[in-house]
Amino acid sequence: MEGFLTINWDKAVDESSSFFSRDVFDNCSAAFHAIHGIPQSPWPHDEQGSMKNNSRGASGKTWSPCHLKRIAVESVGGQGKTLKIQPPAPFPRKSVLNVFEQKDYLFAIIRVMRSFMIAIPADADDFIRIKEMQIKLRDEIQEFQKLAQTIMENNPSAYLSLNPGIARYVNEMWETQLASVHLYPSFYKLIGNIILVPKENMITLDMTLERTVLELGRIPCQIFPPLNTLIKIQRNYKIINNRYPANVLESEQMSNDENAVKLATKYGVKIVVSAKALRSLAGNVGPLFRRSWDIPFTIKEVNFHGEVNKVIFIDEPLPPSEMSAVEKNALFNRMAIKCQFSNVNRSRFFVYTGSGKKYEYSESADEVPGDIFSSDNTDLDSLETFGIEKRASSSSKICTLKVGEAQQVTPETGNTAEAIEVTDVEKQQKPFEHDFSTATDSDSSEMSLVIDTGSECGQSPRKRSKNASKNIKSHKKFPNDTSNTLTSIGTENQTDQQNKNKVPEPGFKVPIRTGKIGAPNTQASLLSDILQNQEKMMQSHRKPSPKNTDSTTSKENPQEYTKPKKDENLTYRIWNLQANEKSIRLLVRSSVDTAIVTSSGEFRTFLMIPKTEYQPWFGGECLSTREMNEQWIDLHLRPECKLVRIRLDAYTGDFLMCEQKDAACLEAEISFQYGTHNKPANSLQTIWAVLSSLCDLNLSPGQFLLRHGFHDGMCIQVWESTGKESSSLDLHKIYNEIDPTANAVRDVSENWSALDPCAVFPIQRALNRPPLTFEPTEDLKKTQIKRKADGGKKKNTKKKKQGAAKDKL
Asked: How many CB atoms are located within 10 Å of the residue 562 CB?
């Protein structure tokens, strides 16, 4: 029996007798680099050395991001100023494109990305142009990405940049959140495991809105920055802390929410959960699932129509156990942009109908900082990256309604808003939204776009009319061909870090049908493939927003429920999460950041999310798969809501760009860059796997804990609270040992993100420089002078030939 249990280990492998040595495997194996998350360079060692020397600059010294030269450059058409940052190292060579080819490529990207935002089909010629430029720029894009990565690898301290005001605010907020752990039991015992992958074969999976049952609180007014402006995000500790105190928790946990308990009892739901908890589940991306979190949940018994039902109340995740400087910057910027781009002055906020005329507190103007833009409000059309900036008309005097005049803003969903007007404020401007259907790419005040067509510099530019994007509807529709589908640029089931550092290629990989060279139907088949793929994508992604299935039912009376804190709002919605033939009814609590009333009277809400840029001198960085899933689920859980993504300089807080997205636009852009199988809606599988497993456990009433670590993979531990001190888990002790002032150290490969080839900054628009391209081969003025000189030479040669022919005659 002892021999049976003995383990006999094999002897160490002799590397001299192997096919290749261990160091060759570590340096060259793609599997080794993929497993350990190490970016593998395709460059030879001699080229790596030259690029490393070049990335340190001409002097060979390290550089400081805050000391890079920043200048103001006049934007297109003289519409304000935009920020230009000098790169830390010069470009190694010129681009393979000249100035006119770069301009054509830039505007093709702009038009395609805008088509996703305004939900109209893009021109097929733009897809063809992007695909052709991809092939031509393949080596240049790869070299540009490697140059950017090498520069950051040689200066890892760039990711440790943390302003003292930011560090103080985040450390105090983190300490407050850590103290909230004591609201839960201290000791837990392990009772089982669940997995992050569905147990059944998923044929259909959907999450549909049943109804909105309760809306409470008030919403600040959204402030949109001008398209081309030079402003900095506020980093003053006192100002941010006055608006959002660091020692106050943001919201109450679901298990202690009296409103949630009352609604769960009345509507008979199985699970009550917050949007933040679903966001954490959706952000855990397979196959490695490296996001770690602790999520408490409580099981209570409620009486529903005379029957005792068990309801699972899932709280928000506990504070993280460690935070790096990058994560602290992101957390602070989230609060800073809410403070700077929203207004809660007495006459500029929106109150849900029935929540009362005012809350029981006194409000003074000194409590809230004034508008950062004292001039006219900016039209929402400015959010389009390259539209003409418009100012709100001075005739708009008020932005709110009188007390008692409730405005029906979205009758299909039952959303209503009531605004408060104060007598001492007589004139307030009304932020409104421009109709995106009339938006056009524009260089001047004539709302027209001058572009250069063709690959030859000798061709004259043409103007693109407003309705040019609609011309594609007049094309002949081709029959559906299942063999021509959108293919992925990457592989399926990649880790979050791999997708973060992967270089996406903008555009579709459209298969070209085989045939004889010069066949007359080759171009027609290519166009038909593009048109079919585009039509399928627009139909699949531009789905109508989920609305109430029963619009005749009324919401709950807010006067019968507990009001949220000052300047906060809460919305409770019932959702049906259905997989195959099974379904789970959820009560989801969510909130929004800001709101406006458009010129057409529509009430629109927004979520503001920062994107901290650590390579702003080169352009915007790609979103990781985790960020894509989290932003998509945030918008899906808030119908009729849009995302305002504000890109900021990580080192100085300079405002770089503002983008506006909805859920369908996010899906379309992700499919365009990464392939149709990388859908953010796939994150619903993780949510279904966790929630359905909790229902199947059939636990007794009590308090529990879901734990997932960095190395746990797809497994989640389920812990039950107990009063015994000899239990295997002491939650209070774990969180008491966390030092809020410490910054976790991450490797550069974890922090670095690849540059986004489809994110066009205003400075790139002003310079007519597409993302991930070097400087053009010739300057615009030199090219124009050369073209004029070439034209004069051609005329002279023609005249000489004509004179010689006359002499012969």
From this structure: 12
DSSP classification of residue 317? P
Q: How far is CA 211 from the centre of its chain?
A: 27
DSSP annotation string for 128-143: HHHHHHHHHTHHHHHH
333 near 651, Cβ under 8 Å? no
Contact criterion met (CB below 8 Å) for 87 and 80: no
**Nearest to 608, CA basis, from 347, 250, 330, 415:** 330
What is the helix (H) or strand (E) element at residue 586, kind and residue range?
A: strand 582-590
Q: Which residues contact 400 (CB under 8 A, 6 or more apart)?
A: 347, 348, 349, 350, 419, 420, 421, 428
Which is nearest to 457 in space by CA: 779, 128, 109, 793? 779
Three-class DSSP category at 124: helix
- Report which listed range, 371-375, 652-656, 787-791, is most confident: 652-656
Tracing tokens 């660091």 back to the chain, one arrives at: 246
Residue with tokens 């000489």: 800
C-alpha–C-alpha distance, residues 24 and 18, integer Å:
11
Q: Which of 237-241, 343-347, 679-683 has the lowest mean pLDDT?
A: 343-347
Rounded CA-CA distance 209/421 in Å is: 33
62, 746 in Cβ contact below 8 A? no
> In sequence order, what are the beta bridge partners of 641?
605
Among the listed residues 402, 381, 394, the one whose alpha carbon sits nearest the alpha carbon of residue 430? 394
For the chain, the average pLDDT equals 74
**pLDDT value for 305:** 81
pLDDT per residue over 119-145, tens digit each? Answer: 888 888 998 999 899 899 999 999 999
Residue pair 170/328 in contact (Cβ under 8 Å)? The answer is yes
84: which residues sit within 8 A by CB, 6+ positions away? 70, 71, 72, 73, 763
pLDDT at 457 > cutoff 60: no
Q: What is the mean pLDDT of residues 301-314?
A: 90
**676 pLDDT more than 60:** yes
Contact, 614 vs 152, CB < 8 A?
Answer: yes
pLDDT digits (tens, 9 = 90+) for 320-342: 999 999 999 999 999 999 999 99
Nearest CA among 57, 148, 43, 107 for reference residue 621: 148
Q: Which residues contact 602 (CB under 8 A, 6 or more apart)?
A: 409, 410, 433
Burial classification of residue 796, based on how many CB atoms lie within 10 Å of its CB (0-12 exposed, 13-18 middle, 19 or more buried)? exposed
List, for residues 539-564, the tens digit of each pLDDT value: 554 455 554 444 445 688 888 999 88
Contact between residue 213 and residue 573 where contact means Cβ atoms under 8 Å apart: yes
pLDDT of residue 21: 60
Long-range contacts formed by 153-158: CB under 8 A, 24+ apart: 153/748, 153/752, 154/52, 154/55, 154/56, 154/62, 155/62, 155/63, 155/65, 155/88, 156/748, 157/62, 158/65, 158/614, 158/651
CB 387 within 8 A of CB 658: no
Categorize the per-residue pLDDT at 798 as very low, low, confident or very high, splitting at 50, 70 and 90.
low
Q: Is the dihedral of CA 521, 523, 526, 528 positive or negative?
A: negative
Residue whose C-alpha is closest to residue 579's, from 475, 668, 477, 689: 689
- Mean pLDDT along residues 163-171: 94
* SS3 assignment, position 689: helix
Give the model confidence (pLDDT) of 724-769 as tens digits: 877 789 999 999 999 999 999 999 999 999 999 999 999 999 999 9
Do residues 494 and 479 touch, judged by C-beta distance below 8 A?
Answer: no
